[in-house]
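Annual report, structural modelling task.

Input specification for the zinc ion complex:
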Amino acid sequence: VTRSDYARRCSLATSSLAGRKLDALLVSSAANIRYLTGFTGSSGLVLLGQNSTVLFTDPRYGIQASEEASCAVRVWRGSPYDALAKWLRGKGIRRLGVEKKHLSHDSFLSLKEQTPSGLRLAPVAGLVEDLRMVKSPEEIDLIRRAVRLNSEAYEGVIQRARPGISELDLAAELEYRMRRLGAEKPAFETIVASGRRSALPHASPTSKLLGHNELLLVDMGATRDGYSSDMTRVAFFGRPGARVRKLHRAVLEALEAAKAAVREGVAAETVDGAARRVLKALGLNRAFVHACGHGLGLEIHEAPRLGRRNKARLKVGMAVTLEPGVYLQEFGGIRIEDTVVVTRSGCEVLTPTSKELLSL
Ligand code: ZN
Ligand code: ZN
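The model returned the following structure:
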């Protein structure tokens, strides 16, 4: 991502200020800050105005900000809101947007206390996130690389998984492998759930040992160059019985139906509905307890959510996961998750890993 990309993103964000009757926007989400300026530190605020973008950060990040940020940098000591309030004086800003999903109530109150009188704070949702939904070709390339790295880590480790090691051991192996392959970190806490625990869609790995004749669900993602990947696969220790095979086939069919529904202009809920229809026909719709997918990029969960009642239309360049699943208490769960990029006529599947039920 070049300096001119950041400049273009800032000017796109600025151009939507007027429509929301804002003079400036205070950006406090780290992912939004990175998207707009390139700054990757964990402490910072960006003031995005009509004519200027300024990053406020503290002395721990002074050097990093001067090297990374494509905009002006102000290093503060003490409260960032003091620095911000000083900077705002005399700038003629009357309505300042704040990111209501990212600014804590406490920070909102300090900001309110310290900003000049006559300045109004306006809660804003999704302004930068809306821009982030559609990825540039460079961003898609970064996601593709993160996806490939993740698949490579999974494929290298899963064949060696054996009954008798714990879920935590396997999660550690997977995360070690992804780091050795160049990931900065896991994109989220790696999910390893075996046996009945696979019925918990967001299970944290435990000391439970992987067992014979049990399902094994792995949901993992790697962050590389800031961009995330996300994939779920299931394996079985031994020869899977008819019920497991049938459920696996059903979920795979639901995933293929979702994939076939993805195309520019289609509503997000339509994709979810396509997967849901397949599972409903098999009497499994009540076991599909979450949305069919989500956008991903600088964050693991981004807009659009591919779920019921989301009428947002898919656009070319959106990167989304498709991840139908069924979860049966006492029995176990199966989810299969791929990452795809929306194209004019369909989608490009980024995830190279086989979706067959792996028998270990
Ligand atoms: Zn996942
Ligand atoms: Zn996911």
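The pocket of zinc ion (ligand 2) is lined by residues 230, 294, 321, 323, 337 (CB under 6 Å).
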